[in-house]
Amino acid sequence: MRSEVITVRTGTRPTVSDITAQAERFVDGAGDGLLHVFVPHATAGVAIIETGSGSDDDLITALDAVLPADNRWRHRHGSPGHGRDHVMPAFVAPYATVPVLGGRLMLGTWQSICLVDPNGDNPSREVRFSFLAG
């Protein structure tokens, strides 16, 4: 197994960050296997979605509708509504696994690997890539 950690600047607002290019560089020439992407944070997740056509903004809008940033949450430290950030990984898991063949990600035409971060309190996130050879 081979592993690497990257840092992604997510800023101070909920965001979806496309990390596909970094994942492609990590598996380039690696052969056949699986890429496991993991976010070691309690308030972030990994999604495989289409980006650039509004789907990334739609995901944030959907999360806001399902998990409003208000005072209904028992977990109350941080900015108002921060408790929803701790629930979000139950909806957008903190991991994803993608097949790799010949050192290339086997994503569909419109699929991208994205870091989903609704938590504006932490402007920087770590993402761990692990390659498991087949």
TrEMBL record:
Gene3D superfamilies named among the record's database cross-references: YjbQ-like
Highest taxon listed in the record's lineage: Bacteria
Pfam families in UniProt: YjbQ
InterPro entries in the record: UPF0047_YjbQ-like (IPR001602), YjbQ-like_sf (IPR035917)
Similarity annotation: Belongs to the UPF0047 family.
PANTHER family reported for this sequence: UNCHARACTERIZED PROTEIN YJBQ-RELATED, UPF0047 PROTEIN C4A8.02C
Name assigned to this protein: Secondary thiamine-phosphate synthase enzyme
Protein species of origin: Polymorphospora rubra
Species lineage: Bacteria, Bacillati, Actinomycetota, Actinomycetes, Micromonosporales
